Amino acid sequence: MSKFTGVVAVILFFILLSFPFIYNSLTVGVLNSVSATPQPKLEKQGKCIRDTDWMRHNHMNLLKHTRENTVRNGVRVTMDSINNCRSCHSNRKEFCDSCHTYVGIKPECWNCHIYPLHGNDKIKNHG
């Protein structure tokens, strides 16, 4: 009986050890088809203050730098302000939230700034 218990224990150990790998191999196709890369929508076409690829990778640093300059130093640069961003990217849900949800982050911008969830909506915020 003890030999049988030892064999069962070893089998259970290997099943538990290999479960994450088996689960990932079985679900990788399902998960990849569900989460397609978001394509943010622009309501107003035109030239952005920076190159699209640069903005995609660095907009958070630009916004943080602008925030620090405005809050700490009192320097207000209209070109880099969040209001200037909202003039083209007016629909927060379709532009900002689509990518931020995809990568699993929640920006701190909306702790202080009001940004309607939909382009023409009255103020619905702080999400």
Give a written overview of the molecule:
- It is a single chain.
- By secondary structure, the protein is an all-alpha fold.
- It contains 4 helices and no strands.
- The chain is elongated, with a radius of gyration of 24 Å.
Describe, in short, the structure shown.
The chain is mainly alpha-helical and 127 residues long.
N→C terminal distance = 60 Å
Percent of residues in helices comes to 55-70%
Classify the beta-strand content into a percent band: under 5%
> What's the number of domains?
2
How many whole angstroms does the radius of gyration measure? Answer: 24 Å
Q: Report the total helices.
A: 4
- Count of DSSP E strands? 0
Name the shape in a single word. Answer: elongated
Offer a few descriptive terms.
elongated; 127 residues; 2 domains
Layout of strands and helices, then pairs:
Blueprint: H1 2-34, H2 52-73, H3 82-88, H4 96-103
